[in-house]
Design a protein that fits this description.
The structure is a homoheptamer of 244-residue chains. Chain A has 244 residues and is α+β, with helices and mostly antiparallel strands. Chain A contains six helices and ten strands, in the order αββββααββββααββα.
C-alpha cells in the first residue's frame, strides 16, 4: 500500500505531495509492533501497566523493564524500540534533575513531557554541534506523575506531539484496550479499581497467561506523591482480584 | 497529479522547471490536513477561534490547545503539524521577551510575525552552526495582537511569507470559512459579533456538535491590550448565543 | 520541454552539457509566475510601480508591499518569491547602513546593487561557516535610487548579474510592458510623465481594475534625493490622470 | 526475500513502512554468520564458552580469542564481526577503568553492559564531533560478571538493547543451543555442571571434533569474584568429563 | 551526443571512463554561449576588445562592461557567465592589492593570472573552512597587462589552466576570430593596427552594426604602463578608421 | 555474480540483507589481484618473502620494495594496493616510535599489529576531525617480529581483524602457497629451512624465473632480535640452495 | 566496455566487486590523453624531455611549460591535466623548501617524490579541516634529481604509488617510447646520448615536426648537482644532432 510513495520517504524528514512525513508514520508502525502498555488516571493516583514479551524462560524478566522511573514522582512506560525509549527517558531524567538542582523543587509533569518531546522533534539531516538521531524515535511513552496540579497521564509520539489522557493504551493491543476504556473507565475510579482494570485489559490483549513475570504495574500515588513499582507479590494480588 | 514532477521535489529546497518549490507546496498540503482555525479583527479587538479534533473522550482537551499565548498582548492559533507550531511559537516567545528586555516595551505585532517567518524561511541543506529544519515547517499561524497601531491579525505560511488580514481562516475548513467571511464580515463589527461569527463558522465546518471541549476561543482586547483565553463557561455562552 | 535535461538539474549548481545551469533558469521561471513590477528613470527621478495580487478583499493590502525602502535614497521593487526578496532587501539595508556608519555618507546605488548580487551568487552545497541558500533566490529586483551620479535604475537576477536600465519591467507582464516602453519611453520624460506611463502599463497588464489597493507607486526624486512612497490619494490622482 | 524492501534500507538508519530498521536486522544476520558462543549462570558463577572457527592448522588459535576480559570481574564472549567486538569491548574496558578511578570500586555488571549499548545505539549519519560508526555494530556480546548483586549474564544486540539471561547462546548455533538449554538447564546447577553443559552444547553445534584449540571456556566465580580463563589442560578435562 | 555519459557527470568533479571531467567541458560550453572577446599583444601594448550583447535599447550599456580593471596596469575581458567573472576578477584585484601592500611593487601579470587560476581549480565537494564553488567557473578571461617583462596577454579557462597568447579570442565567435588572427596578425603591429584589427574582427563576428554602445575597447600601453579604457569618442574613431 | 547485490554495496559501510559488508569483501578482492607475499615462523626467527611484479626491465627493483621495516624488531610485507600499505605501515611506525618514547622499550608485536588494525577499521562516512579513508584499505599485511614472547607472525585484513599464524601467504598465489605450507611446514624448522621453503613457494607461484630483482626476503632473528633485509647476494644464495 | 561497472564507480573512492577503484583507473586514462613526456637516467645526470601540443601559432610556447623546477636539484615533467600537475608540483616545492629550512640541506629525491604521493592519495569524501580533492589527480609526474645517492628518476601515478626507473615515458606516446627504450637504452649512456635518445623518441611519437617551440628538454647534472632548463638554441643543437 505504500509502494507508490516510496519516492518521497527516502528523504528522512521531507513532505510527500499529500503533506505527510512518511518516516514519522513508519515510526508509528514500529510502535504498533511493540507490546502493549497502558495508563489510567484516578483521583488517588495514576496506574501504569505493561505487557512484557519474554522471549524465553531463560530470560531474567526484571532485566526487561518497560516501566522506568524518571524522578521520584514521575514514571514512564514505553511501547516500541527499547533502546530509543532509554534515550528519551535518560533525557527526561537529566532534565528533571537539572530542574531540581536549579529551582529546588520537583519538575511538573507537563514540563517533563515537553522536554522529552523537544528531543523527539529534532531528527533529520541538518545537525549542528549536538548529535541528532537521523530518524524519528520509534517509541511512544506514557508519562505518569503527580504534581501540584494533581495526578496526570501524558502520551508522547514520534512527531514530538504530547497529549494528556484520562486513560490511554499504546503498542500492539492499543486499539483493543481503548475500546475497553471507553466502556469501563470512569473518572472517579479508586486507585484499586484502576489497577484491576489495567491488569484486566492486559489479560485480554495478551496471548500468554498473566503472571508476575510477564506484566509490570506501577502507581504514582497522590497521598505521598511518590512512584511505587509493584513487586511480584503485589502483582499476584491484583491478578488474584481479577479471578474473583 | 504530482507524479511527473517527482524528479524535482527530492531536493528539499530546489526549483522545478516551472519555478515552483514543491516541498513548500507539500507543506501547505499538511496544513490542509489539519483542523480549522480562524481569526477576526474588529475595532474592539481580535478574535481567534479553533476547532479541536479530540481523538477520544479519554483525552483531556485542555492538553491539546491550538491557541497559544506569545506574549501578554499577542496570541497565535495554528493549523497543521502541532510540534512544528510549538517550535515557531516558542521562537516568537523568545523574540518577544528579548524585545521587552532590550527596549523595555512590548514588541509590535508585525515585528513578532516577521521574527517567526525569518525562522520559517531557513530550512534546507546548507546549515551552519545553528540547527536548521531539513524541511519547511508544516504549519500556518494566525497571529493576533494589539499594539500602538491598533488590533491586528497576521497570517504566516511555510514559505516565510506573512500577510495581514481583516479576517482569515486556515486548515481543513479554510475555504468554506472564507466564503462565509466574504458574506458576513464587515469592518465595524463589535467584538461580540466577531465572537459569534467565529463560532458560527466553526459550527458550519465541523462535523461534531460544538462544545467547550472541541473548540477554543480567545480575544486580544483593545481596551486593556491583553489576551483573554475563554474558559468553558464563556465558550458555552457564545454557543448559546448562536442558538438564539 | 525540459524532460530530457532532468538528469543535469538535480545537482543544484551544476552545468548541463550545453553549459546551462538549470536551477538558475528555473528560478527565472519563478519570477515570471510573480506579479508585474516596473521602473522608469527620468531626469527628475526614478519611478517604481508594482501590481499587487490581493488574494481576497479581507487582506489588508498595505501588508503586501512590493516596494521596499532600502535606505532614504534607495528603494527596491520585486517580482517572484516574497520571502526571498525580503532576505535580499534586508541584506541591502544592512550593507547600506554599514556604509553610512563606516564612511559617513550614503552608499551609491550601484554598490548597493552589487552587494545584493554578491549574496545571490552564493548558493549551492559547499557552505562554510555562513548559512547559504541551497537554491538560487527566486526573485528579481529593480533597485532605484539617486546618488551623486544622478538617478539610476538597476535590475538584479537570480544568477547575480545586475544591469542598469532606463526603464525595465519584471514579473508576469514583463514582456508586454517592455513593448510599451519601446514605443512610449523617452529619456527626457518628466517625472509626472513617468508616473503616468508606469501606471498606464500596469493598467494594460493587470486583469483587475486599477485601485490604490492593488498597485503601489514610489519615486526617488532628484531634487531632494529622497524616496517617496505614494499614499492612496496620490495613487488615485495618477489613475485619474490616465482617465483624462 | 528482502528484494522488495531495498528502497528503504539504503538510508542507514531509517524506518521501512512496516516500522522496521533494516540495517539493524541485517546486522543481526551478520551475527548468525558467526561461530557459536554461550553463557550459563549458576549460583557459583557464570560460565562462558565459545567455538573457534580456526581456518587452518597454521593459525595460532590463541590469537583468535572469542572470550575477552573486560575487567577483573567481568568478561565478554562475542559472535559476529571480530573487529566490531573489539571496539565495544575496548569501550567497556575504558568505562570500567573510569568507574574504578572515579568511585574506587568495581563497576557493576549491568552498568558495564549499559555503557556498551550506549555506544551501539549511536550509529548513522548525524555525527557531531565524535566519530560514529556509519552502520550498526555487527556483533552480539554475552557479558558475564559477578558483583554485589551476585553472578549475572547479559546479552547485547546491535540495536543497543540488553537483556539478562540465566543461559543464552548467540551465533550460528544459537537456536540449537537454546533448545538444549530449555531441556537441560536448571537454576541450581553447580559451576562444574555448567561447564559440562556448555561444552556439551558446543560439541553438538560444531562440525569439528572438540579440542582445546577450537573452543574457549572461562568462568567468573562467585567465591573470589574473579575471571578465570581456562587453559588447554582445564579445557581438556572438561572434554574428558563429557566422554564419561 | 552526451547522453551515454550522463552517469559520470553528475559527480561534480569526477572522471569519466575516458579520463574526462565533464563538468569542466560543460563549463567550456557555457563560455561558447557568451559574446565574443579578444586580445592582441603588440610591442607598444595590449589591446582588449569585446562585443556587448545589449538586450534592449533601454539598457544602459555602460552597466554591462565586459572589460574590467584588475589593477592600474592589468585588465581582464570575459566571455561566459558574468557573475562568475566578477568573482574571479574581484579575487585578482584583492591578490593584486595584497601584492602591492606586501612588496610595494605592482604584481607581475603572470602571477596575477596564476592567482586567478588557483581559485578556479578549487571547486567540488570537499570544502574545508573556506567557501568553494560547487561547480567550475563558467567563464574564460583574457588578462592583459604590462610589467617589467613587457606587454602580455594570458588566457584562463575553467580547468584552471592558463596560457600566454600573442592574440586570442574567446566566446561565441572565437573560432572565426582565430582564423582572422592567423591571416592578419603579426608580432610587429603598431598598437593602432592592433586596435583596428580587434574592432574589425568584432565587426565580422557580430550580427549588429558596430557602435560605441555595443563594443568595448581598452589598451594597456607600454609607454606609461597603464590601462586606458576607451570612451565612446575613441571607439567611434576606430570604427571610422575601419570604414576608410 | 555480484550483480543482484549492487543495491547494498553503494553505501560504503553498510550491511547487505545477508549481514555482509560488500566493500570489505571487494577490498579483499583487491588483495587477490596483488602479487604473492608470505611469512614463516621458526624457533630461530621469522622469514618474510615477497614476489615483485617488475613491469619493465627499466624499473629499478629496489624502488618497489614489498617488505618494509616498521621498527628495528618488526617488519611487514604487503599484498594489495601499494599506497594503502604505505599509510598503514607509516601509522605502525609512528605508533612504534611513540611506544619507545613513552615507555622506553620496544613495542610488542601484537600491540603493533593491533594499532594497525585500529586504523583499518575506521573508514566510512562519519568522519570527525581526523581524516578517514572513505573506503577500506585494500591491503593485507603480514607483520613479523620478535619480542619477549618470542618470534611471531601476524596477518591483518581490510576488516581490521588480525590473526597469528605459524605460516601464512597472501595475494594472488595465497591459496597455492597455503597448500604447500600444509604439506611441508613444521614448527621446528630451522631459519634456513624456512628461507628455503619461502623462496621455493615463490618459485612455484611466480611465472617469471626467480632472481634477486623480482623477489625480496627478510628475517627477524631471535638471537639478535633484529630485522635483516637480505641483499641480492644473500637472495642468490637461497635460490642456489633450491637448485641443489 | 565500462558500462556494466557504472554502478560502482560513482562513489569516488570505493571498490568494485573485482577489487578495482575505477576513479583511479579513469584518472590514468586522463594521463593517456595528454602529450608525451619522458626521462632518462645516465651516470652523468638525468634528462627530462616533453612534447608540447601548441594549439596555435599565436600561443607563446614558453607559457605552456611541461618541465617545472621543484628545487635547484630536482625537476618534474608531467603528462595529464595541467592544473593538477601545478598543485602537486607546488606542494613538492613547499615540502622541499620546508626541508631546507628545517634541516639546512637539500631534500633527497625519493622523499620529495613521497611527499608528492602523500598528497595524491588523499582524495575522496571524508575531508577533515584540510581541503581535499574530490577526485584523484589526473596526472603522472616524472621527477628527476641528483642527491647524495646519485642521479635518480621517479614516476608518480594517481594512486599515490611511486617507482624508480632507469628510463620511463608517460602520456599519449608512452607505449611507443617504452619500446624504443627497451631497444636502445643502456645504463652507461653519456648524458649527451641520453639527450639525443630522448629527443629522437619525441620525434617518433609526435605528429608535428620537432622545433624548439614544441619540445622542452632539461637535465639535472651530476657534476654540479643542478637543474638546467635548455634554451631554444640548446634544443636546436640536439635536433641538429639527430639529423646527422
Amino acid at each position: 500500500m505504500f509502494s507508490s510513495k516510496s519516492e518521497y520517504d527516502r528523504g528522512v524528514n521531507t513532505f510527500s505531495p499529500e503533506g505527510r512525513i512518511f518516516q514519522i508514520e513508519y515510526a508509528i508502525e514500529a510502535i504498533k509492533l511493540g507490546s502493549t502498555s497502558l495508563g489510567i488516571q484516578t483521583p488517588e493516583g495514576v496506574v501504569l501497566a505493561a505487557e512484557k514479551r519474554v522471549p524465553s524462560t531463560l530470560v531474567v524478566p526484571s532485566s526487561m523493564n518497560k516501566i522506568m522511573e524518571v524522578d521520584g514522582h514521575i514514571a514512564a512506560v514505553m511501547s516500541g524500540i527499547v533502546a530509543d525509549a532509554r534515550i528519551l527517558v535518560e533525557h527526561a531524567r537529566v532534565e528533571s534533575q537539572n530542574h531540581r538542582f536549579t529551582y529546588n523543587e520537583p519538575m511538573c509533569v507537563e514540563s517533563c513531557t515537553l522536554a522529552t518531546c523537544d528531543l523527539s522533534i529534532q531528527f533529520g539531516e541538518s545537525g549542528g554541534k549536538r548529535k541528532l538521531m537521523s530518524r524519528p524515535f520509534g517509541v511512544s511513552l506514557l508519562i505518569a506523575g503527580v504534581d501540584e496540579k494533581g495526578p496526570q497521564l501524558w502520551q508522547t509520539d514520534p512527531s514530538g506531539t504530547y497529549t494528556r489522557y484520562d486513560a490511554q493504551a499504546i503498542g500492539g493491543g492499543a486499539e483493543a484496550a481503548q475500546n475497553v476504556f471507553t466502556e469501563r473507565y470512569h473518572r472517579n475510579m479508586t486507585l484499586e479499581e484502576g489497577e484491576t482494570l489495567a491488569v484486566d485489559i492486559l489479560k485480554q490483549v495478551m496471548e500468554d497467561q498473566l503472571s508476575p513475570e510477564n506484566i509490570e504495574v506501577a502507581v504514582v500515588r497522590v497521598d505521598d506523591g511518590k512512584l511505587h513499582m509493584y513487586n511480584p507479590t503485589e502483582i499476584k494480588a491484583i491478578i488474584a482480584r481479577l479471578a474473583e
